[in-house]
């Protein structure tokens, strides 16, 4: 029976668009911030830890014997000494724990979590030298606002300001730029202090101070948290500046040519591909003179929780019972509504047209939902695990810039085979985000200039439940990672993306040597970091329906969902790929 969109479903899908495209027309007064990712049954003992989405890639619960919340570097040293003296496993948790993989899990039930939630202050600002030192648990939002108050700007950052400075450094989080040192925040680190285990003769913990010329800084500024706990970070800032942003929507016929050029033309340029529409949104984003009029803002308006729940329910119905016709009709509804929304405002209140000009700290990142007063869950972040709202995968990976045009051409070839398959496999309003990342000196940073790709897509609450046209994103990822030599983002992606990825980092052996010196017992390492760093085991989890969950690449039908018509098949464009395809689609 053909499923068409009812009036109720259309309203729900418009609510879905509102959330996904990060904007609503109605601004609300408050919002329930996300819950603490660490929950304990007896004070600070008998704890569990998750991420801000409430689920790791393998859906397991991570446990720990206890959590500690140091408020000073001295207390942090004491916390590290306590675990080192008993050789307990330990991992660092941030305030919101945004990493999708299991980076925050100590391992087993007897480990310790050290949270940096209360290490959130500015240590010092030297406006004359353009240096700023902060504690590692400081949120990006607070950092850039404090810098602006001192007449300074952090040149580049990720787009989400709910990350802590220690967390975003540990995973190599980035914005978009090929100019200067590039768009990764760790490129602007000129010093840090890190607490590591030590022998009993040194009190079981020491503070290591790494200046700009210290040979270990390139290991510490992107480290997955396996070296110790960063206490302070010193950043090279720039005088407060403004940016001018214009979004231009064009046909994607020259997409593969533009992907090689756009990042060189605009300092903060990025691209969003809308495959079903055959369009690309080009972000023209550059610095302008600070005297240029404008007080623009890039922000995430608040969302009513009821709208989030309704939108997710509509999405589930379309995923589980809809047809391609119904899904594409919904996608068209979302696209139409998207034209009426904008995450930029010219004055912090309303959008009157491009360009949007504003100070760097108001343009570089967004994230209202996590920092508003509690309102009893009347509103919330879209992915708050306490509500049945958004529950998605976020695949992040990068492809060498020299290979980006060929990669884009293959993506378009896959789209052209069945455009309707992209209505449900790739979010139709977010599309595929492409950002530019410059080669890094960090041992675990990008080995060469790259294009970073982000794809957000549906995830079922039911383990092993196939999603519509699941093979599309799986083939895109394998295409990027294997045919074009791409690498996964350390804080995103599913398990299979990390299999063998560490071999693509030329300086990983230098990193591991520093790791062995800083933490010879491996107290700050866990099963996940050992696997992705190539020390022990594989990130793949082989079991029934593992490929549906992204825990493996299928090698036989049991890894898919044969009972529901999903079988392991070669990719449609990249024949070496192995994906779970619905038998009627292949």
UniProtKB/TrEMBL annotation:
InterPro entries, per this entry? ALO_C, FAD-bd_PCMH, FAD-bd_PCMH-like_sf, FAD-bd_PCMH_sub1, FAD-bd_PCMH_sub2, FAD-linked_Oxidoreductases_BP, GULLO2-like_C, GULO_Plant
The EC number(s) attached to this protein equal 1.1.3.8
Provide an example Pfam family for this protein. GULLO2-like_3rd
Please indicate if the UniProt record lists Oxidoreductase as a keyword.
yes
What Gene3D superfamilies does the record point to? 3.30.465.10, 3.30.70.2520, Uridine Diphospho-n-acetylenolpyruvylglucosamine Reductase, domain 2, Vanillyl-alcohol Oxidase, Chain A, domain 4
Q: Which UniProt keywords apply?
A: Ascorbate biosynthesis, Oxidoreductase, Signal
A molecular function (GO) held by this record is: D-arabinono-1,4-lactone oxidase activity
Per its record, the protein catalyses: L-gulono-1,4-lactone + O2 = L-ascorbate + H2O2 + H(+)
- Keyword Oxidoreductase found: yes
Top EC class, one word: oxidoreductase
| Signal peptide as annotated in the record | 1-31
Q: What Gene Ontology cellular-component terms does the record carry?
A: membrane
Q: In which pathway does it act?
A: Cofactor biosynthesis; L-ascorbate biosynthesis
Q: Name the cofactor(s).
A: FAD
Q: Name one GO biological process term.
A: L-ascorbic acid biosynthetic process
The FAD-binding PCMH-type domain sits at 60-240
Q: Which family does it belong to?
A: Belongs to the oxygen-dependent FAD-linked oxidoreductase family.
Q: What is the protein's given name?
A: L-gulonolactone oxidase
